[in-house]
Design goal:
This protein is mainly alpha-helical. The protein contains six helices and three strands, in the order αααβααββα. It has helices at about 10-25, 30-40, 45, 55-60, 75-90, 115-130; strands at about 50-55, 95, 105-110. Strands 1-3-2 form a three-stranded antiparallel beta sheet. Helix 2 (about 30-40) crosses helix 5 (about 75-90) and helix 4 crosses helix 5 (about 75-90). The chain is globular, with a radius of gyration of 18 Å.
Length: about 140
């Protein structure tokens, strides 16, 4: 990864693997859907970790609401805002600019940049090591 947040196509398989292993278990289903949407339209699209989007666009572009009575089944504005706050709170996205007519500029973070992911990975690897190498020296099946 380059310092400016640009990624190469060769890095994508490893990034996707780390997202699935280290970030997705920490997210709610809405959080995961929104993160993957933002990842797809930033890093996966052109290698650039920056993405400008409006809450209005996110209401109908990511997932459909099972609660809405409206024909378009858009997610509520409150749910979009709550989900963006949750992703910011865990460190999965970061605002890098003020909102304008086209939306807010975000930087989509990857697991190596997210403290919660690094902690989760360390815990998971320690647990996996215990399963592979029990004290008796016999592999657990």
């Amino acid at each position: 990864m380059h310092a400016r947040g640009n990624f190469s196509a060769q890095e994508l398989p490893g990034l996707v693997q780390r997202i699935v292993d280290d970030l997705q278990p920490l997210l709610t289903p809405y959080d995961a859907a929104f993160y993957w949407f933002m990842f797809r339209h930033s890093i996966a699209e052109d290698g650039n970790a920056h993405f400008r989007v409006s809450t209005r666009h996110l209401r109908g572009a990511v997932v459909r609401s099972s609660y809405s009575q409206a024909p378009e089944k858009n997610v509520s504005l409150g749910k979009v805002q709550e989900t963006l706050r949750a992703l910011e709170g865990i460190g999965a996205i970061r605002k890098v600019g003020e909102a304008n007519r086209e939306g807010t500029l975000y930087r989509v973070m990857v697991p190596n940049e997210i403290e919660a992911c690094r902690e989760f990975r360390a815990e998971r690897m320690a647990a996996e090591q215990k399963l592979r190498f029990p004290a008796s020296g016999i592999e657990v099946r």
